């Protein structure tokens, strides 16, 4: 790796930092001017990421440990969200404020691009590379949107800059310094987005290969050290959320690609997709002028070059080609194609183009500056209408000055439900109107209102009609909304269960309509300043009902806010021998105190719950009486609730033979009853898991905070601590419900402890042993997993899932020869 013989000629002058600072100020000033004029709504991804940042903003003020902290974002690594938090703390919450984080990212892109260009060539190439990168149309557009890809680009190229300096360093001290920086940056990159490795894998492989070829073993040690350093940054998040990564491939690659019609991998279009996109990413101007300069240089049409490069050009081009070629091939091999996914290779393209542009010399030297000035004009013209030019080339990314009613929708819901969390089922699915940006505007109002997407199948939409108390529809074009969703929207105006709460005119001359259920799940009323303990004022239940079918019921509670919000009511319907439970938090966890004045906390409130409960299908006919207790989870103490003034009895008829609960009937129940009803499918094994998790997915849409899981956990913890009979089917069902609640909250230790308790009372069920083994694997305890799965293998040796657990347990212990015969038939 030859160094320049004239290092002084390659030293940056005062002009380089001045030019880079001016460039940083110019592009950020242009971005802020555009954002200040734009009234457009954040799209699907942008709104989702903005909400992610708000989630971390809220979590910082209620920090409850690192595990919970990392779980706030279990799909996307959280660095971008975290870096946007200070800007929203200082300047307020919102899209424009969160986008101030691009001040940081643009500075990183400027330094890294300049640094790589300077190290491989000279400061002049570095300067022009920075200008070309920032003026590329792809960067001009995506800097205006809060997405992970700008952050990914800046930090991935920062990693490559550190790796470049390390790779070409000859002094031992410099090597260790740069590899430490690389390890830190790699950790940050993996905390930004996993796809950073698609850009860095081939350069790392190349670096390791050349080090081995040259017998530079200390460099191999340095690379290993960088991996260990990076783990300190990313280890916590990945260890907490690695289970979700298994579903990421299908969710982020196969499904979107199929929906968007991306070319199949066995076609030439898949492999030239990004090549054909390059002119749109870079612009024809910034491609043609530099390439022509390179061709003229090769044709010796310019005077002899006086520039001195830090390294031989061949070495520099090979190094850039390793990064570019590796990234291009890896992303081309992915089914899902999107131009922004491959943005981190654009600064490397800019370095090559800057080298080409600097070949214009002699009397043609002005071509460099002329190209730069035209690129600046075109970049500005893409954002703002320019005199004369604006008529010929209207702004490609013109500001949106329309007024959208998203904030008014949220305000309308809050006015109606001041003391409740609300959840809107959103049918429209366009860029500017979708469940993600409705959800984001609800998050801006202290997370009092949520927006959720309806299912895409007729059976799911039928359940959603029952599960959502609020529905939002739009006339005209609904973009990506599915046919079953549109059919529901067409039915709502005539549906007696819903009424129009409000409507708004939209910029596209259509109408947005907000529907509310006539009898919502929960109603809250504020009465007076009289302080009273919690009491059950009224219970409305049919005189007769059928076991195994939903039983409509309405509870009316009153009391002070603390008792209403913080406790769990333990409701037991019993005939003296048989009983079922209807435990839940009052208001099912929907009570919201964010708008409660401090003087109101001791006032009297009324909470009315309109729901349904379920008597088990095998219960005998008879009259069942209500017994009510109030559980304070903070103390674990329960006290009776006065119900002497309330008629609390229901007569149950025996269920007909082969009575089954349909999915629509299941949704009629409250969320806790649904969870308790489906949890016993865990005991069925693999066949029971698909329908179980399919319903959990719907259930989590209806309770966006999944607070029902906490309620199930707390109520059953108390119930099981008092249970005397441990082998009855109902007690086993409670264990399954508690296990499911723990597992869905990612509480592995509690899941394991409850599974072991269930194993003690049901030792012959092989799936319980398999679940215990799986949790041990989740906790990175392969030896315990191998021991735990053995009874399951003894009972059912042919079940592939049991074999997989055994094989993975052996593999994680390093027993390759033991693992291979087990795993080979499964691959």
Characterization of the model:
The protein is an alpha+beta fold. Among the domains are: 15-378, no CATH class; 406-517, D-Maltodextrin-Binding Protein, domain 2, CATH 3.40.190. The protein is 55% helix and 12% strand. The protein is built from 34 helices and 16 strands. The strands form 3 sheets. Strands 8, 10, 11, 12, 14, 15 and 16 form a 7-stranded mixed beta sheet that branches. The protein has a 5-stranded mixed beta sheet with strand order 2-1-3-5-4. Strands 6-13-9-7 form a 4-stranded antiparallel beta sheet. α11 packs antiparallel against α12, α11 (196-213) crosses α16 and α33 (800-812) runs antiparallel to α34 (816-823). The two termini are 45 Å apart. Mean pLDDT is 91; it is low at 1-9.
Q: What global shape is seen?
A: globular
* Radius of gyration, in angstroms, nearest whole number: 31 Å
Class from helix and strand fractions: alpha+beta
Q: Provide the helix percentage.
A: 55-70%
Classify the beta-strand content into a percent band.
Answer: 5-15%
SS summary, helix count: 34
Low-pLDDT windows of residues: 1-9
Rounded mean pLDDT score? 91
* Biggest sheet statistics: 7 strands, mixed
Question: How many β-strand stretches?
Answer: 16
What is the rounded distance between the termini? Answer: 45 Å
